[in-house]
Amino acid sequence: MFIRSTVDGLFSVFEWIMRLVFINMLWVVFTLVGLGIFGWAPATAATFTVIRKMLLSRGEDVPIVRTFIQTYRKEFMHANTLGLLILFSIIILYLSGASMMLMGSSIFPKIILIGVAFLTCVILVFIFPVFCHYQLSIRNYIRYSLTIGVANLHYFVLAMFSLFIISFVYSSLPVVMVFYCMSFPAFIIMYISLKMFNKIAKVKDSETNYRHEFQTNISTP
């Protein structure tokens, strides 16, 4: 029994390794299809969507290519709008930081910039998991990513630590990055995000049940 469970576990790990390689290949191809700047965001959204479905499938097969292409087409405009906002925010932060360094700004503006950069980082970590898990407007995707990230900072810290470890591995073994540059970070962030989403859902359910019981007790003579 132990040997069988071990073999099944190893097979599952190997299956995930191969699937992540394939998903990463799709991300590269469809990023190039969108000429890079117009392809990376919908390809990233499709990557997170496929990985989310795989994590929630509980052993059932997920049509990777079909799901990826459908998501890429369906979310092309929305994802690009989000992607351009992300690129614009990063450019603004970079230019602001560079100008402060050149002009020798005082400590107060630097503290403000660091705070803004931190909040932007929170949004960047959770924006695509939120994008593929909820149906919201572009503004609410950004706002909700920030809200749940700040409210659950331990998940954000865990995600950042994981990304740091991944970056270290990629810098030490560049060949690994070739096969997993997007798919493996997306897998880790999506896994952590689903844990956070489930926690939020449980809290909301418990609050709803509490309110229902409270109202029932009040209405009962």
TrEMBL record:
Keywords: Membrane, Transmembrane, Transmembrane helix. The chain crosses the membrane at residues 20-48, 82-105, 111-132, 144-170, 176-194. Signal peptide: none annotated. It comes from the Bacteria. This is YesL family protein. It comes from Halalkalibacter kiskunsagensis.
